[in-house]
């Protein structure tokens, strides 16, 4: 299994109602370059205080709750309060201590830098 496939592996595929909230998997985009893996998760309406990002034992867990403030009785609802939940396997090449997260305009961005040992390097060729 290559690194892209490994991190993109989804554990939960279906929408599931848990507790009083619907649980849905946020859409994600994942990019990789020489220095890091970038993960973008679409989590509209989630605020920082309702967001959780954890990495433990090679498992990345994202969780965020969107709570809409409403008044009056709903006459039509197509989206409401929801919990975004998604889990990924994290390659061992990621330097977990340097992972950074940013939430802006409903998009969570995770910068997951590769360890120095995992970065590609060019080998110098010596001549005699």
Describe this structure in words.
- 5% of the residues lie in helices and 41% in strands.
- It is mainly β and 128 residues long.
- The longest helix has 6 residues, at 3-8.
- It is elongated and about 85 Å long.
- The termini are far apart.
- The mean pLDDT is 86.
Layout: helices, strands, pairs:
Blueprint: H1 3-8, E1 16-18, E2 21-24, E3 28-32, E4 36-42, E5 51-56, E6 59-66, E7 82-89, E8 100-104, E9 107-113
Parallel strand pairs: 2-7
Antiparallel strand pairs: 1-2, 3-4, 4-9, 5-6, 6-7, 8-9
Strand content: 35-45%
Order of helices and strands: HEEEEEEEEE
Proportion in helices: under 10%
| Average residue-wise pLDDT | 86
Biggest sheet strand order reads 1-2-7-6-5
Radius of gyration: 19 Å
Features:
128 residues; mainly beta; 9 strands; 5% helix; HSP20-like_chaperone
Summarize the structure.
This protein is mainly β.
């Amino acid at each position: 299994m290559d690194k892209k496939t490994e991190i993109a592996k989804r554990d939960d595929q279906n929408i599931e109602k848990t507790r009083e909230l619907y649980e849905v998997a946020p859409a994600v985009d994942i990019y990789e370059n020489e220095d890091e893996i970038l993960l973008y998760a679409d989590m509209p309406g989630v605020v920082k205080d309702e967001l959780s990002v954890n990495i433990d034992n090679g498992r990345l867990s994202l969780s965020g709750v969107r709570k809409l403030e409403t008044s009056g009785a709903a006459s039509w609802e197509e989206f409401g309060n929801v919990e975004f939940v998604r889990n990924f396997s994290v390659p061992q090449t990621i330097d977990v201590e340097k992972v950074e997260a940013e939430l802006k305009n409903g998009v969570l961005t995770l910068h997951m830098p590769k360890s120095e040992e995992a970065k590609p390097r060019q080998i110098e060729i010596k001549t005699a």
